[in-house]
Amino acid sequence: MVEEKTTELFERVKNNLPSDANISDIRFEGSEIVLYTKNSDFFIKGTDTIKKLVGTFKKRIILRPDPSICKDMEQTKKTIKKIVPKEAGIKDITYEPEFGKVVIEADKPGLVIGKRGETLNKIKAETLWLPSITRAPAIPSETIKILRGLIHKDSKFRKEFLHKVGKNIHSGWKKTDWIRMTALGGFREVGRSCILIQTPESRVLLDCGLKPGSNEFPYLTVPEFDINELDAIVIAHAHMDHAGIAPFLFEHGYDGPLYCTYPTRDQMVLLCMDYVQLMQKEGKTAPYSTKGIKEAVRHTICLEYGEVSDITPDIRLTLLNSGHILGSAMAHLHIGEGLHNVLYTSDMKFDKTALYEPTSLNFSRAETIIIESTYGSSSDILPKRSEAEAKLVQVCKDTMKKKGKVLIPSFAIERSQDVMVILERAGFKNTIYLDGMVWDATAITSTYPEYLNRDLQKLILQQGHNPFTSKIFKRIGSMEERKKVLESKEPCVIVATSGMLVGGPSVWWLHQLAEEKKNSIVFIGWQGEGTMGRRIQRGWKELPVEEKGRTRMVPVNLGVHTVDGLSGHSDINQLQNYVARLKQIPERVIVNHGESNKCTELARTLHKLLRCETLAPKNLETIRLK
Ligand SMILES: [Zn+2]
């Protein structure tokens, strides 16, 4: 049945092409249709014909060269270097022969593309390869290198996999007459976010995280969930409480697609790798290995913000900016040809931050909204961002004057880059050391400037000033380097993981810096109950430090500061503003991702505001949406 549908669709596409198009292969790539041609003239000039096809079939259609017509690889390299201006800074040229693709990595992708794509077209015409451009990381990073190698090496597998996904999407749609949602995790709690959306045709997971600290899983043993029946996973952003168990699912039989943005894919690898290594270091068994992480990457289909993509016969997915971390997204599901639309906000920030634009309002309809409630109580009002930023700068400057060192325990992703941009923008002159995973996370951020807010994009892409590559930032990669910085008299700032002083280099730094009054520690994120961060914040005066098998008590004399207001989550005012700005009042709002009382309180508040059905379900509840 599926085979028949596919053959029939492909025949119809072929019949709409000129007789000499010489198509050697036609196949799916996810929701797209890809044609391979042996006619070089058609490959170069067929753009208009393809555009017409797209209009007829209402599908994305791509034309590629059959590998047999592509020019010799060495020759192609020379030709590209001749055509592209030197200032583009080409860093690498690699090939994916199975896709007829040449991948050009450059410092300035815009110059490889040229005005209205002129340079790109020239490359295409002279080499008969389809050029694909990626931005070279402004900061060298091993993680990005490994990741890009992984994707390019696997093109044979990817080709088969993407075709299989496409066949499922196009397997025919009968009728969608019901839609339901099951809360598998992250309801009336923060952590292990996981939602199952079901229709007669589809089973889709929105996020699949684990609970930080306890590492608890979502409820995957419920009758509603069958890993063998799952059609797609959508990951809203890379935080472990949203993406942490994706590799586990791939190690336990899931072999379908995972949808997310490009930065989410990269950061997910970084965080999951770190998680596995940390578990090993602590002598625990991680629920999955690096094999599961690799499998997740092999099965990932990246979407840009705003790109509409069919993911099952009756669900169309669009990812929209959520303003929370790099590449973080809300998932908009258009179900059953518009029968019902669901917006899953995941974690969102409805305010412009130093790094990102506020959460997007750019979708036409959403009858059901699933919204987070981290700061869902009426008393959850964060200080103004400008005040928080000013306070951070002040503490750092004051400590420099006293010739001390500032320790900022921070999450590797988002908050660290936030601090970097705030201090750089304030004209901070002293060295800021980046310890732990912060460097790799920054390297990933520097690869995707188009995901940053407009001011930063303008600064980086038009004015050529990249705050992340400023000379004030230096990497600390080893214990030797750490000791060198410690021994030096130079006042400085150290941004180190983990953010709550539970493992990672930030703990080592605290032990070294605690005793001296001239030093400071600045907490820039929420400190969990039972963490060392919370204890220091509460005024602990002594710190037990293990040294050569003995415990020594270190007095805590350094200045302790907390800067609230840099959160990547919306506070209660921002949550209310967001729903108040929606184009249409939804039929129903479902509240999740918050402690129990925050979920119920936000549900009540939004009911008063919108006068629609609002719910704060518990984990394991199933709700019929239509
Ligand atoms: Zn998050």
Brief summary of the model shown:
The chain has 626 residues and is an alpha/beta fold. Helix content is 35%, strand content 23%.
Could you please describe the fold and organization of this structure?
This protein is of the alpha/beta class. The protein folds into four domains: 1-68 and 144-171, GMP Synthetase, Chain A, domain 3; 70-136, K homology (KH) domain (GMP Synthetase, Chain A, domain 3, 2-Layer Sandwich); 172-379 and 568-624, 4-Layer Sandwich (Metallo-beta-lactamase, Chain A), CATH 3.60.15.10; 385-562, Rossmann fold, CATH 3.40.50. 35% of the residues lie in helices and 23% in strands. The protein has 21 helices and 28 strands. It has a seven-stranded mixed sheet with strand order 12-11-10-9-8-7-28. The chain has a seven-stranded mixed sheet with strand order 13-14-15-16-17-26-27. β13 and β14 (315-321) form a beta hairpin. α4 (73-83) runs antiparallel to α6 (118-127) and α11 (262-281) runs antiparallel to α15. The longest helix is centred in the middle third of the chain and has 20 residues, at 262-281. The chain is globular and about 85 Å long. The mean pLDDT is 94. Zinc ion (ZN) binds at residues 237, 239, 242, 324, 347.
